[in-house]
DNA sequence: TCATTTTGCTTAGCCTGTTGAAATATCTTC
DNA sequence: GAAGATATTTCAACAGGCTAAGCAAAATGA
């Protein structure tokens, strides 16, 4: 087995771990990974418009509407008409939504961040360099204005 | 922005490239990424049982039944009752299915493999080491006998 | 000013993937 | 051969995704 195979296998493990994380999250947080991702994005600043979220996640507005519908039904977020531009809807997170995502298990990220930060400086540097190299190899010529979608998002650090 | 963030962002790019690849594949090969993954598994040996495929992909038998239904409708695979154990169904790939996956575009892997193999020895070694390190960080204590699922599977090399 | 275009969002209808529960058919075993 | 285990399928229900169409509110421009 050559290095190419080994590297592909490692990539596969990374993808799979992410997928499994998404499923676990779905069960433990009482919502699906996609819904959780929407919550995370809204929680970053406390509010966001459907279009903005849709763009970041790489889905259409229509899809976002139905996702928000479900989160509203769960009392996790609220819709509020914008004052400035009354075409816009502002989706804000509710107190319940906030505690839910704060308390949500985030095993993948926690695990990764903790271990990453425990590494020595040179090793961190090496990993960052390698990951960026791989990312560049994979998403090259795909840099268009397309959205920042990611499956079960590994999330923002810290 | 510290190194942890940078590394998470790179990971996110990797995941996203994989996701986008799955979507492109779906359009160009005339089937979805999930269906394609089923085809790949069957093609490994030319045949497989629904349960075996379901296990490898981490879905239930019921799901596999409906996936196979669709592939049968597309004339990509066939169901054949096993002779030995007539409870079992053997899913075999058709000639059409075989040519379809042989000719399927595999831009992600091609791109990756080509670039990887063009790298210098020391760089390949560095990337393999880094990817394995990251994979270990992510899928630690998750090594159980669970299935070999991966989204839009990066695929087997060569 | 006001008609036209653009923008932001929702509705409606349709697909795929997924599951759990129940039904069917076929071994296996005592 | 009856009871239990195993392999699949069927069915009903949902989540997520899309497109097309519609509506309401800005923005534009003649």
Layout of strands and helices, then pairs:
The structure is a homodimer of 158-residue chains.
Chain A lengths: L2 H27 L3 H13 L1 E2 L1 H8 L3 H13 L3 E5 L7 E5 L1 H9 L3 H12 L2 H19 L19
Antiparallel strand pairs in A: 1-3, 2-3
Helix pairs in contact in A: 2-4, 3-4
Chain B binds a DNA duplex (30 and 30 nucleotides) through α4.
Biggest interface and residues each = A-B, 57 and 56 residues
Q: Provide the low-confidence segments of chain A as ranges.
A: 141-158
* Arrangement of strands in the largest sheet of chain A: 1-3-2
CATH class (first level) name of chain A: Mainly Alpha
Secondary-structure element string of chain A: HHEHHEEHHH
Q: How much of the residues of chain A is beta strand, in percent?
A: 5-15%
**How helical, in percent, are the residues of chain A?**
55-70%
Which structural class should the secondary elements of chain A be placed in? mainly alpha
Instruction: Give the termini separation of chain A.
Output: 37 Å
What is the alpha-carbon Rg of chain A in Å?
18 Å
How many structural domains does the protein architecture of chain A include? 1
What is the number of helical segments of chain A per DSSP (H or I, 4+ residues)?
7
CATH topology of chain A: Arc Repressor Mutant, subunit A
GO molecular function (chains A, B): DNA-binding transcription factor activity
Domain HTH marR-type (chains A, B): 4-136
Pfam families (chains A, B): MarR (PF01047)
InterPro entries (chains A, B): HTH_MarR-typ, MarR/SlyA-like, WH-like_DNA-bd_sf, WH_DNA-bd_sf
